[in-house]
Amino acid sequence: MINKHDITGLILAGGLGTRMGQRDKGMLPLHGQPLARHVLQRLAPQVGQLAISVHADAGDYARFGLPVWPDVLPGQLGPLAGLHSGMRHAGTPYLLTVPCDSPLLPPDLAARLAAGLVENDADLAIAVTEETDPATGSAVRRPHPVFCLVKTAALPQLDAYLRGGERRMRTWHGPLKLAEVLFEDGAAFGNINTPDELAALQARGLSVPMAQAILADTVAPVTGIEELPLPQAFGRMLAADIISPISVPAHDNSAMDGYALHGADLGGGTPVTLVVVDTILAGRPGTVKVERGQCARIMTGAVMPDGCDSVVPQELVLQVNETSITLAPDSIRPGDNRRFKGEDLMQGQPALLQGKILGPAELGLLASLGIAAVPVRRRLRVAFFSTGDELRSIGEPLDAGCIYDSNRYTLLGMLTRLGCEVLDMGIVKDNPQALEAALRGACAKADVIITSGGVSSGAADFTRDILARLGDVAFWQINMRPGRPMAFGRIASEGDTALLLGLPGNPVAVMAAFYFLARPTLLRLMGADADTDTASLPLLQVAAQAPIRKKRGRTEYQRGIVERGADGRQHVRVTGAQGSGILRSMTQANCMIVLHEAQGHVAAGDLVDVVLFHGLM
Within 13 Å and on the Cβ side, how many CA atoms surround 364? Predict the structure, then answer.
């Protein structure tokens, strides 16, 4: 087995596309991000280290924050030069190469190539796919040598091959043992070579991880900061590190009600009698020096007398009177039941870091430090509305073909729980002028605009045309279920700007898109610490109680119930029908089952990822 941390993933970039106007293909935009960024997002979870190989002009790729390795060989040698450079620079036993213009590469590419390499005791493994020969109708294997996992120790063979004047990626390995690993999805290894291919890929929609990465890379915290008294700061986002002004505890103190003594007086095989010379209460330090052979009555939290390093709990004392105590042999060890100064927090150390949401424990910690007020980010202002002629507000008569607007109340609850300042703009009819006016009005008042409905490809969905006039949209569709139609962009109106999150119209799709895409975006805007991934939802693994049907190639979120079975172990089952309009199923569920893009059908007993609703709903 090859550990992923032993693999360096290398993106082969810097080549010019002849059918792309001699432009660097890795930097061509897809959903507002360079193609190479999409490849990087897919490759990163599969390997331990990452780097980019370029032929020339590494400046554009340097902004990715990764090592950039220029070709060391003269001339235009294409991917072979990148492979050579990678094998020379990589500090791991294995190197995985992928091209910069294949953004659909398999999420299990590294794992399957590694398994093939080990099973065949090979020096390198490449991906192959099967195609149908149009002439014979038979299956023909097509190798993809640029998708290659190779031992970096194979560099001498590559050097020898290059010295011989050969330049073909398919034959460089010579006598080395090659493993060919069959992949079913040929499209995953396709290159983007023409504007039409790029446009077709744009129309397919984004993977969920890439959409999450784009959202995370695009947003920055609001700049407004306010100082709030501690009682008013609950639920707010800390805007600066809090450095402890004191040590906690401020002194060595007792962890028990008992007797403080010298650890050196303990030991031996006979009982120990000590003279009681003082009584020390919490908040009242002792006044008598405790010598060897002596002890002091002490209460929990009271300051330890000088020289004493141990506390025997009062229930372990064999005999006690007004002037002495007797201890059994080995009743405690030296140092027991003593809390050290600064054991919890030392003066001058960070107590809380910026980006932390201030909950009950955080308020208590700040109070224990004597801090009365803290800097917090201002509340994020979010305007939201629903779109659709069929929608009616609560209290209005329900005409034929109409439905009550549930999405606004769902959004109100989710945004309020998140701590946003919310602006409910009601229902906007399917009318271009009304929709544009609503967007402009929201832009003037809010940092973020959230809509529900109006972002699919239906004839009455005017959002696309309006946003083309008001701003830029990074993406419109995501390969997820429920929630495929979702827009993200930025709009501007009369000098004001706002982010737009256009959620689907179906109620369950709204909640799924909010929790897994909108929520982390809003938290980062609020100042959540991205380095510690405060905005992410924790995934837990639970066994599936029964089989779950799942289509590969998209991320699915199914409503589930985690419960404990007769065997005492937890398992999860789906709530039933998973239609995106069945909002009642969300009230029955206590979790969302996360079925990732590469997953297919789930068998009973298989482990699946779940996100518990506790704290979210």
Answer: 3
d(Cα 473, Cα 451) in Å, to the nearest integer? 14
Compute the C-alpha angle 555/27/172, nearest 5°.
90
Q: Is the pLDDT of residue 532 over 60?
A: no
C-alpha to C-alpha distance for 257 and 336, rounded to whole angstroms: 13
Instruction: Concatenate the DSSP letters of all residues of 115-138 into one string.
Output: HHHHHTT-SEEEEEEEEE-TTT--
Contact by Cβ (8 Å): 439, 431: no
Reduce the DSSP state of residue 589 to 3 states and report it.
Answer: coil
Q: What is the pLDDT of residue 380?
A: 97
Q: Indicate the burial class of 287 (C-beta count within 10 angstroms; 0-12, 13-18, 19 or more).
A: exposed
| Structure-block tokens of residue 447 | 């940092």
pLDDT over threshold 70, residue 529: yes
Taking the C-alpha atoms of residue 565 and residue 562, their distance in angstroms, rounded to an integer, is: 10
Read off the tokens for 516: 């897994």
3-state secondary structure of 47: coil
Q: Is the peptide bond before 249 cis (omega within 30 degrees of 0)?
A: yes
Which has more pLDDT, 205 or 11? 11
DSSP string across 171-199: TTTTTS-EEEEE-S-GGGG----SHHHHH
**C-beta of residue 423 within 8 angstroms of C-beta of residue 445:** yes
How far is Cα 521 from Cα 518, in angstroms, rounded to an integer? 5
Pick from 289, 288, 283, 287: nearest CA to 303: 283
Question: Could you say which DSSP state residue 303 is in?
Answer: B
Quote the tokens at residue 339. Answer: 């809390």
Cis peptide before 482 (omega within 30 of 0): yes
Handedness of CA 98, 104, 107, 108 (dihedral sign): negative
Q: Reduce the DSSP state of residue 416 to 3 states and report it.
A: helix
Residue 531 tokens, joined: 């380095």
Range list of β-strands (E), 281-433: 294-298, 310-313, 317-320, 324-327, 338-339, 350-352, 373-377, 381-387, 391-392, 403-404, 421-428
CA–CA gap between residue 171 and residue 186 (Å, rounded): 22
CA distance 342 to 329: 31
Q: Which residues contact 471 (CB under 8 A, 6 or more apart)?
A: 489, 490, 491, 492, 497, 500
The Cα diameter of the chain in Å comes to: 106
Give the three-class secondary structure for 81.
helix
Residue 534 has pLDDT above 60, yes or no: no
Q: Which residues contact 533 (CB under 8 A, 6 or more apart)?
A: none
- Look at residues 13, 171, 173 and name the one whose alpha carbon lies nearest to residue 81: 13
Do the beta carbons of residue 236 and residue 227 sit within 8 Å? no
Asked whether 573 and 608 are in contact (CB, 8 A), the reply is no
CA proximity to 516, closest of 496, 486, 491, 541: 486
Distance from C-alpha of 490 to C-alpha of 448, rounded to nearest angstrom: 9
Write the pLDDT tens digit of every residue in 17-32.
Answer: 667 776 788 888 888 7
**What are the helix (H) ranges across 371-497?**
407-418, 432-445, 463-470
Using omega within 30 degrees of 0 as the cis cutoff, is the peptide bond preceding 29 cis?
no
d(CA 554, CA 574): 18
pLDDT in tens, 397-433: 998 989 999 999 999 999 999 999 999 999 999 888 9
